[in-house]
Amino acid sequence: MLGAMTELVVNVRGLRKKYGGTVALDGLDLGIRRGEVCGLLGPNGAGKSTCVGVLQGQRSRDGGSVEVLGADPATAGRRWRSRVGIVWQDESAPAELTVRETVRHFARYYPRPRDPEETIALVGLEAKAESRIKALSGGQRRRLDVALGVIGSPELLLLDEPTTGFDPAARHQFWELIRLLADDGTTILLTTHYLEEAEALADRLVVVAAGTAVAEGSPEELRARFGTRATVRWTEPDGAPRSEETETPTRTISALADRFGGEVPGLWVTRPTLEDVYLRLTGQSEVTR
Ligand SMILES: Nc1ncnc2c1ncn2[C@@H]1O[C@H](COP(=O)(O)OP(=O)(O)OP(=O)(O)O)[C@@H](O)[C@H]1O
């Protein structure tokens, strides 16, 4: 029997989807364990939103197997739907209602909703609870979307580019919210174009390009596997900056320490960032496609 840590909440094998002649998903595999925060990364048009759409049962598929919380989203019923939270991209809530009215209204759709007031506080909208939706800023609107996504206490939360349009402070507050939900045991899939966001939130990343997964692992694993060369920088006695790319930075530094007889002036060691690795991975797939 699978233990709680290895139970796959999302199990996608060989997922295919075409829109007319456009191949959006070309045999995508994706597994998400219970309690995990999984980040789906990939360039524009890679197939991320299509994948999220299939997982929530909004889009049909042309091939492959998809299991979400033990059911096929294409045929799953209302009960299953209440266990999956979705943060919609488009504005679906009525503009004339207030935040409080909207959250309370949506809570009635679910068998075991969160407390509406607590949920409003969770997304930091207490001060706007009596504001009409049409009077919210873009970032506040997005927070309301998140509140509506989590009001049903979902086991799985699907977030498609949740922080697009957020200012840096709002983005960091949103990250705190996602961490709270994750600590609460919610399994989360989020797509994002912000590498910093992926690194801050995701236990595991899946990099998608041209409709298939080209790499997966924790941010650290991806960096370790695909970005092994470190750059060692230092300053020569005449003040000239020097640098060396190396697989063995310790050896380089040790040799420098010998040469300088101790402290190496201006010593600085950097590793490739996740962004460097991501660009390499998605660039490669472009070439091999
Ligand atoms: N409703 C649709 N009709 C026709 N083609 C579509 C439709 N939705 C998506 N596509 C195409 O499918 C491919 C994958 O699109 P998708 O939106 O899934 O990518 P994405 O990775 O989410 O991109 P982005 O990062 O730009 O949001 C693209 O080539 C896109 O043009």
TrEMBL record:
A GO MF term: ATP binding
Signal peptide: none
Listed PROSITE patterns: ABC_TRANSPORTER_1, ABC_TRANSPORTER_2
GO terms classed as biological process: response to antibiotic
GO cellular component, as recorded: plasma membrane
Entry membrane topology: Peripheral membrane protein
Protein name per Swiss-Prot or TrEMBL: ABC-type xenobiotic transporter
